[in-house]
Amino acid sequence: MRHWASWHRHITLAMLALAFLTAGAADAAPQRPAGPHHFDHSLDPITLTVPEIRRLFGAICNPPAVSTARLLHWSIWRRRHQATARRSHYRRRTPDESAG
User: Fold this and answer.
1) Are 60 and 75 in contact (CB under 8 A)?
2) Parent domain of 37
3) Alpha-carbon torsion 35, 40, 43, 48, what sign?
4) Cα-based distances in Å from 88 to 16, 19, 30, 70, 93
């Protein structure tokens, strides 16, 4: 971008897209439990994040080489994998009850 006006237009559209994706992620997120370690026991995949919504939205706009069912299956698998990693992280970071 060579001029300030073109840069300003690009940044404005990028910020608008980010706001749209953030609002979509916030709308899709369920209410969180009050407990500090509520991720330890949940077997559900993580909620939709802005990058995941962007990836799914991009796949809708640009027809993927795979079917929509396979794309959604991959998304759910990926978010379950991230939830497993989160549980492991929180389990490792919590103080050991038996060490007291």
Assistant:
1) no
2) 4-93
3) positive
4) 35, 31, 21, 27, 9
Residue-wise pLDDT for 70-97, tens only, equals 888 988 999 899 999 988 888 888 776 5
Cα 89 to Cα 15: distance, rounded to the nearest angstrom: 32
Note whether residue 99 is domain-resident. no
Average pLDDT, the chain: 77
Give Cα separations from 78 to 27, 60, 75 (angstroms): 20, 18, 5
Asked if residue 17 belongs to a domain, the reply is: yes
Residue with tokens 């490792």: 92
> Alpha helices of the chain — where are they, by DSSP H?
4-28, 50-61, 68-93
